[in-house]
Amino acid sequence: MSLKFIRPHVVFNLIDQAEDCFNEMRLVVPNRHTYTGGSPTLLEKALIYALMKYANPKRIFEFGTYVGATTRLFHDNSQAQIYTIDIGNLTQEILDKEVNHADIELIKKTQAAGSNHIKGLDRITKILCDSTQYDYSQLPTFDFIWIDGGHDLFVAKPDTEHAYQILDKTNPNACVAWHDYNSDLYPELTQYINEIANDRDIFYIEGTMLCFALPNQAVDLPSSLY
Ligand SMILES: C[S@@+](CC[C@H](N)C(=O)[O-])C[C@H]1O[C@@H](n2cnc3c(N)ncnc32)[C@H](O)[C@@H]1O
């Protein structure tokens, strides 16, 4: 078990089922009115799209709604039921926990923007709660889980553990994916993913801050050396 480095095309090839298969993705192109920082890049969104398609999701769970950019990506490119959790407001409790500065800024922006990308969309269940405090036992299982909430170890670790708990074990393509691996802002997250890769296969997609696992299958994806 290890952290395996792969190139983006390896992920796109996962959904390249036939020679004449053209995968079309619906995408909101960011502009100065809609982009507030903190969301994945366009390449990352295409990769998230591919991983999500590969998981063929009936249900998707997202840690970290923020403006709803990835929530909308999931909505516009699947028929899945989408659950998304965000703390929403900056509370004294968060300030007392010494949450890292970058996450404090994102929580402030979340409060101001109010998930504006997903207003009026159906199939989305918004949960307003600290993800470390939520009762996950009340939820169904999920085929694709996107982890991009709090990046301190005291949030990323329980989020990851909960993700594995609610992952649908019957779907061989079910996927858990993380954002912000290798980000200068979040060294604790990178260290944590490096650690958990000691006892499971995790793939890091080069040129991005994306990692993912396919926990229900032993998959041998070509590493970036080849
Ligand atoms: C990087 S943003 C998510 C980006 C989003 N997926 C997008 O593409 O628009 C991280 C979000 O996690 C939320 N967050 C931080 N700590 C949290 C916690 N403990 N529980 C739930 N949400 C949290 C922040 O409020 C912020 O909206």
Structural write-up:
By secondary structure, the protein is of the alpha/beta class. It has one domain: Vaccinia Virus protein VP39 (Rossmann fold, 3-Layer(aba) Sandwich). It contains seven helices and eight strands. It has helices spanning 8-14, 42-55, 69-76, 92-96, 101-113, 153-166, 187-196, and strands spanning 3-6, 59-63, 81-86, 124-128, 144-147, 175-179, 202-205, 210-213. The protein has an eight-stranded mixed sheet, sandwiched between helices. Strand 5 (144-147), helix 6 (153-166) and strand 6 (175-179) form a beta-alpha-beta unit. The model has no long low-confidence stretch (mean pLDDT 93). The site of S-adenosylmethionine has 24 residues, from helix 3, strand 3 and helix 5.
Short overview:
With 226 residues, the chain is an alpha/beta fold. The protein has 7 helices and 8 strands; from the N terminus they run βααβαβααββαβαββ. It has a single domain, classed as Rossmann fold (3-Layer(aba) Sandwich), CATH 3.40.50.
Q: Can you tell me the CATH superfamily?
A: Vaccinia Virus protein VP39
pLDDT < 50 stretches: none
Radius of gyration: 17 Å
Structural class of the secondary elements?
Answer: alpha/beta
User: Please, how many domains?
Assistant: 1
Share of helical residues: 25-40%
Overall spatial form: globular
Q: Can you give the mean pLDDT?
A: 93
The quaternary structure here is single chain
CATH class: Alpha Beta
Strand order of the largest sheet: 1-7-8-6-5-2-3-4
> Under the CATH scheme, which architecture would be assigned?
3-Layer(aba) Sandwich
N-end to C-end Cα span = 19 Å
